[in-house]
Write a structure and sequence with these properties.
By secondary structure, the protein is α/β, with parallel strands linked by helices. It has eleven helices and six strands. The chain has two domains: 136 residues, Response regulator (Rossmann fold, 3-Layer(aba) Sandwich); 71 residues, Arc Repressor Mutant, subunit A (Orthogonal Bundle). Helix 9 crosses helix 10.
């Protein structure tokens, strides 16, 4: 099986080097490039076509949010997954990053073993939010008023009652195994429901399903 190819984007050389050494030391992972600015990150993603980009938020020339958006929507790089790493706990960056197409959001003080696990999870096509970030993300969604969102019926048009149940539990942070137990379904059936939700809502991954659940008003309102 081919190694997971990783691009490290951070404006601090020491941080890039540290993450690069950590990734290269792990079995099944390899660094294919580095970038010190958002512009360089987009160019490097187009050049190397990595499986995962470790993306800092605050970088010169172009921030990590805009770089993420360009990578996730670009025809050459739309299959590239972006994992946001930041020193900031929770602010508008997390919302903007996930809406831009990021598949995960971790803090830079995440233990090395968890970071390596996160890279593998994101590369496999799943989404990941640090548990602490997930809890605060939910708190923030429930606290914020909605502005200009489409009504619930429009966002969830065509979504069945069972799929809404699945979506609500995803928004509450349940894993597929926990979903199966909660709804008394097989794991395969849960995965089928999630696949249909992704298609119907035009969501890239699980992280965007969480956003859809809250922005539609299904969860937390």
């Amino acid at each position: 099986m081919a190694d997971v190819r990783v691009l490290v984007a951070d404006d601090q050389a020491l941080v890039r080097g540290s993450f690069g050494m950590l990734v290269d030391s792990a079995e099944g992972l390899t660094v294919v490039g580095e970038a010190a600015t958002g512009v360089d990150a987009v160019a490097a993603a187009r050049r190397h076509r990595p499986d995962v980009v470790l993306m800092d938020v605050r970088m010169p020339e172009m921030d990590g949010i805009e770089a993420t958006r360009l990578i996730c929507t670009g025809p050459e790089t739309r299959e590239v997954r972006v994992l946001i790493l930041t020193t900031f706990d929770l602010d508008d960056y997390v919302f903007s990053a996930l809406r831009a197409g990021a598949s995960g959001f971790l803090l830079k003080d995440t233990p090395p073993s968890e970071l390596l696990s996160a890279i593998r999870i994101v590369a496999a096509g799943d989404a990941l939010l640090a548990p602490k970030v997930t809890r605060r993300l939910i708190d923030e969604f429930t606290r914020r008023p909605r502005h200009g969102n489409r009504p619930l019926a429009a966002i969830l048009d065509g979504v069945t009652d069972r799929e809404r149940e699945v979506l609500l539990l995803i928004a509450r942070g349940l894993s597929n195994t926990e979903l199966a137990a909660e709804l008394h379904l097989s794991l395969a059936t849960v995965k089928t429901h999630i696949g249909r939700l992704l298609a119907k809502l035009g969501a890239r991954d699980r992280a965007q399903l969480v956003i859809a659940a809250y922005e539609s008003g299904l969860a937390g309102r």
